[in-house]
Amino acid sequence: MTYIHQIATAVPENKYNQKDILEFMQSTLSEEEHREKKLMALVSKNSGINTRHSVINNLYDYFLEGTVPDIESRMSLFDQAALKLGVKAVKKCISESQLQEITHIVTVSCTGLSAPGLEIALMKELELPSNLIRTTVNFMGCYAAFHALRIGDQICKSNPNAKVLIVDVELCSIHFQNEKDDDNILANTLFADGAAAVYMSNDDTISSIYEIGSFFSKLLLSGEQDMAWKLSKTGFQMRLSNYIPKLIESEIANMLSDVVAQTGLASQELQWAFHPGGVRILKAISNVLEIPKEDIQASYDVLAEHGNMSSVTILFVLLLMSKNESTGPVFSAGFGPGLTMEAMTLNKL
């Protein structure tokens, strides 16, 4: 079996209150843009977010002074800041001696791309063995951590001596777009920065927090245009449709039925760990699965404290859940472009 021995998270030092970000966003508008100001206020009020973190020291200076940052500038910032935040998460996750036992490294990000990439920068900074097997998961969106965990599980099952390190870094704030359309207003209100490291192997002598079960995937092509992530000369552009919660609501029950059928788990036995893509998504999940809000409180708490950090957010949720005393089966799911739903089962130890 594959075990998750440890998860550690890290956030940038810059912490912004949601109300301050709203004031900043509204400051970019003219006095005549009443509709946009009202929409920003409404989305912010209903976001369920209190605070968010960013690698950017001063949002106003970065985005409003002079020209809007181009994609080269944003990627340069990513290369510098992602390494620092990733190292911070890794050092919280495993010891120096354990680092030298790592055989595989998997890096995850949909907010920055380069080659040589983050995995090589981490190897150099952490002085990891040069013969590590490297894998990167890039530009897949909010469900990418599920792919990384699946890859880690497959590595451990095929190699009994494998020690896998996953490093997931998302710097969503560097792609803030000073635009007034509904998609960008929503994205600018939701997304934030964070990182996490995960240490995995099949060594049952090492203390663990989760045992990995099964993985599941479902592609909803009817929602292909409702969530998208595109490159542009001024950074990455997000499309988020208001229809996404309804799409998720229509299919999450089917996915859960598949999980129950394939694993023999009963839904009433499960604990729940959902990617907090937004309050409306969490409410849609609760409604269709008839789950009380308190049963997915970890997702709400992470959203409130950190916002939506894209793929790394689910690792914050799993870490928070690992600290409660309950044990047993866990159902976890995330959603991203495609529209894709990825899910997995875990056994909380």
What does this protein structure show overall?
This protein has 349 residues and is α+β, with helices and mostly antiparallel strands. It contains twelve helices and 13 strands. It has a nine-stranded mixed sheet with strand order 5-4-6-7-1-8-13-12-11, with helices on both faces. Strands 2-3 form a two-stranded antiparallel sheet. A two-stranded antiparallel sheet has the order 9-10. α4 crosses α6 (118-126). The protein is globular. The mean pLDDT is 89.
Number of DSSP E strands: 13
Radius of gyration: 20 Å
Question: What CATH first level of the largest domain would be assigned?
Answer: Alpha Beta
> How many helix segments?
12
Key attributes of the depicted protein:
349 residues, alpha+beta, Peroxisomal Thiolase, Chain A, domain 1, 2 domains, nine-stranded mixed sheet, two-stranded antiparallel ribbon, 13 strands, 40% helix
Q: Could you outline the blueprint of secondary structure elements for this entry?
A:
Elements: E1 3-10, E2 14-17, H1 18-27, H2 34-45, E3 51-54, H3 59-64, H4 71-93, H5 96-99, E4 104-109, H6 118-126, E5 133-138, H7 144-158, E6 163-171, H8 182-190, E7 193-201, E8 210-219, E9 227-232, E10 235-240, H9 244-263, E11 271-274, H10 279-289, H11 297-306, H12 313-322, E12 328-336, E13 340-348
Parallel strand pairs: 4-5, 4-6, 11-12
Antiparallel strand pairs: 1-7, 1-8, 2-3, 6-7, 8-13, 9-10, 12-13
Briefly summarize what is shown.
Helices cover 40% and strands 26% of the residues. The chain is α+β, with helices and mostly antiparallel strands. Helix 4 crosses helix 6 (118-126) and helix 11 (297-306) crosses helix 12 (313-322).
